[in-house]
Amino acid sequence: MPVSAPADTTLSRRTVIRSIAAAGGGMILGFHLPGALAAVSPPESWPPLHGGAEINAWLAIDRDGRVTIRVPHSEQGQGALTSVAMLVAEELDVAWDTVRTVFADMHRHVNGGQEYIVTTTHGSQLVRLQHKHIMQAGASARERLRAAAASAWGIDRAEVVARQGVLSAARHAAPYARFATAAAALVLEQEPAIRTPDQWWLLGRETRRVDVPAKTDGSAGYAIDTRLDGMVYAAVKCCPVPWGRLVGYDFERIRHRPGVIAVVEFRAVPGKTGNSDLQDGVAVVADSWYRAKQALDELPIEWDSGAAGSASTGTQGATARALLDTPGKLSAESGQDATAIIGAAKRSIRADYHRPYETHARMEPINATVSVTDARVDVWSPTQNPATPLLLVADQLGRDTREVFAHTVFIGGAFGGNGGGATAVTRQAAVISQQLKRPAKVIWSREEDIAQDKQRPPVYLRLAAALDGRGLPEALSSRAVWFTRDGVERVAGATADVGISNLPYSIPNRRHERHSVATHIPSATHRAPGTNQNGFIIEQFADEMAIAGGWDPLEWRIELTKGQEPWQRVLHKLREVAGFRTDLPRGRGMGVAVLEDHDSFCAVCATVEVSRSGKLRVEKLVIVANSGYVINPLNAAEQLEGAAVWELSHALHGGLELEQGRFTNTNFDSYALLRMDEAPRIETHFAPSQAGWWGGMGEPAGPPTPPAVANAIFFATGKRIRSTPIMKQDLSWS
After folding, report:
1. In terms of Cα–Cα distance, which of 701, 431, 670 is closest to 574?
2. What is the pLDDT of residues 461-511, one digit of tens each?
3. Which helix (H) or strand (E) holds 619?
4. Distance between CA 88 and CA 134 in Å, rounded?
5. CB-based burial label for 716 (10 Å; 0-12, 13-18, 19+)
């Protein structure tokens, strides 16, 4: 299917950036990212090799020595293109300025033996869990190059040195490119071991991300940018009460509106209730998305909400309060009867907390483009697993995966639920294209995006603790209630009390319980699943326990994590760099929090200012992270800062309101996000243990940020924030 770029007939931000750059305005940076526009160009796995050779699925070497590294992971702003390339280049041992990155071919991966092993990008796992086989690909290529040179030179491979793109021995030297073809044909008897951190020459150094230039000069290709000859556009509306039924609609009312082509309806498949499955809905198809959306708004549609139409924030709250008074499923227990100890204690504290539904609110609206022909199917969809669109479309259309081609794109926000394209949108686009026999782009309006997103489940939590003679907790109990689709107990491994039932503090007697309540609202992961909701709660209750016992909150945490080196490392570093104190003037406060997520340990110190009338300003965040190892401090700091801002945004402003089974605040006028002028200064520090374990970096700074801010608010105002959004609480003081 040929692809054509649209004429610049409208003035957009991207057009302005490109125009300024073309006019010599200085906005184009001197780095070209081949493959950045692969999402909107004809199907091609990577640029031609110009006489070089593929060494393995991960890399190829041109005859001029340029190394092309194929990245099978999504780039959603977390630096995957850079991280994978660094891991391969470290082992291959080539100069960084000779490396270019492209997205790997998912058609080849799915149909050719899963060469890339893992292609998903979630759970802070790319470097944490995949570094071994990624580095192995580079090490294997290096050793095959050495073997090819040794064979040509008639010497032992041990005599050949591979360094910075050059193979050398006593009387020989040649660039890698000379032996690339021969190396590609070799099979090693044994794969080499990957380098240990003490041998790194590239990893561990600050390295600029390779995707930044394309994203700043406007050339980066996202799914929403896709343009195909003859393409139609569709606006979609599903039942606003998820999994409600479509009763009917009156197409005659809009049939003659300008640009309208057709109405396509979707029907849920009985028993198919996954996050990517179709729900009952209607799509208006037109020659532009604006016309499709305007017509959809005028289309009379009748829905049957079913029993879920009576659900609301209020009814869920009433259910939660009743369950908080009822014993739940035991998650963890240690020591003696914590409940009895707390009941008999001379000094005890209790508190109830709540986090509501929260949505992803990705900057790139949920969208997908699919082109169905008899010969093949092409799909552009923003998912955290580049192979997912191929598999979804093949399943929806009943096509062989060998006939489906997925084009990996940059993602304008993801962080949970496998990205926006892993909703029903990809199936919807496939259905429309198949029916109309034309390429179809589906874009969800912001209201549809939020209403039909896969939400972070709400949680209600009751905590109680007994204090001993030193003012330290001798017993702790918790009871959590959360609401998930069909009452599933786990969302990506997270339970209602993750981060609480496994908290690190040395409390001898503990009991943790949970309830999982069924609801019709689809739920899925957000950045740092589970720990994000519960971190806000447990790290505030930690402060409550410390203050009730007469302890400085930071010293309390250090005391109760003694003997746990990863925790001690970040807490001691935080004490060193943050200047935490509890005696700032009224209206100003500092707060701390520390949590573990995806095998990384992160502490945050927040400084806030609250006016007498209750206006909050988060002035500064100090972040200390311990992920074991850090392969790129610059990118790691960016990920930590991004996670902190993400979670701060939802804690300050987020929170969905459920009425009559549907969400009522479905655009940015009612579901606000953090504005640029609200962003705090952020200072980032690393305290890596370097003790043989690898932690993730994309998520761990998120969960401790809201409780650090809430704890700071307490010291500024004396008010304890027990629910979010924080900005809707009364923070005034006198």
Report:
1. 701
2. 999 999 999 999 999 999 999 999 989 988 877 888 999 988 999 999 999
3. strand 616-626
4. 6
5. buried
State how far the Cα of 93 lies from the Cα of 66, in Å rounded to an integer: 13
pLDDT (tens digit per residue) in 298-343: 999 999 999 999 999 999 999 999 999 999 999 999 999 999 999 9
Cα(529)–Cα(164) distance, integer angstroms: 41
d(CA 534, CA 520): 22
Q: Residue 569: helix, strand or coil by DSSP?
A: helix
Domains in the chain, ordered, with CATH?
30-216 (3.30.365.10), 224-306+366-443 (3.30.365.10), 313-358+455-728 (3.30.365.10)
Query: CB under 8 Å to 344, separation ≥6 — which residues?
Result: 466
CA dist., res. 221 & res. 535, Å (int): 36
Both tokens assigned to 345: 């204690």
Angle between helices 388-397 and 425-436 (to 10 degrees): 50
Alpha-carbon distance values, 196 to 83, 115, 693 (Å): 17, 24, 12
Token pair for 177: 């490119």
Q: Are 504 and 567 in contact (CB under 8 A)?
A: yes
Q: Which residues of 580-618 are buried (b: 16+ CB within 10 A; e: fewer)?
A: bebeeeeebbbbbbbbbbbbbbbbbbbbbbbeeeeebeb
pTM, rounded to two decimals: 0.92
CA torsion, points 94, 99, 104, 109, in degrees to nearest 10? -10
Q: How far is CA 732 from the centre of its chain?
A: 35
**Cα gap 290→312, rounded to integer Å:** 32
CA-CA distance, 233 to 285, in Å (whole number)? 6
pLDDT of 47 > 60? The answer is no
**What are the tens digits of pLDDT across the range 687-715?**
999 888 999 999 999 999 999 999 999 99
pLDDT digits (tens, 9 = 90+) for 198-210: 999 999 999 999 9
Say if CB 620 and CB 682 are below 8 A apart. yes
Cα(256)–Cα(260) distance, integer angstroms: 7
Buried b (16+ CB within 10 A) or exposed e, 344-381: ebeebbebbbbbbbbbbbbebbbbbbbbbeeeebbbbb
Nearest-angstrom CA–CA distance, 443 and 440: 10
Assign residue 598 a region: left if phi > 0, alpha if psi is -120 to 50, beta otherwise? left
Residue with tokens 């092409």: 378
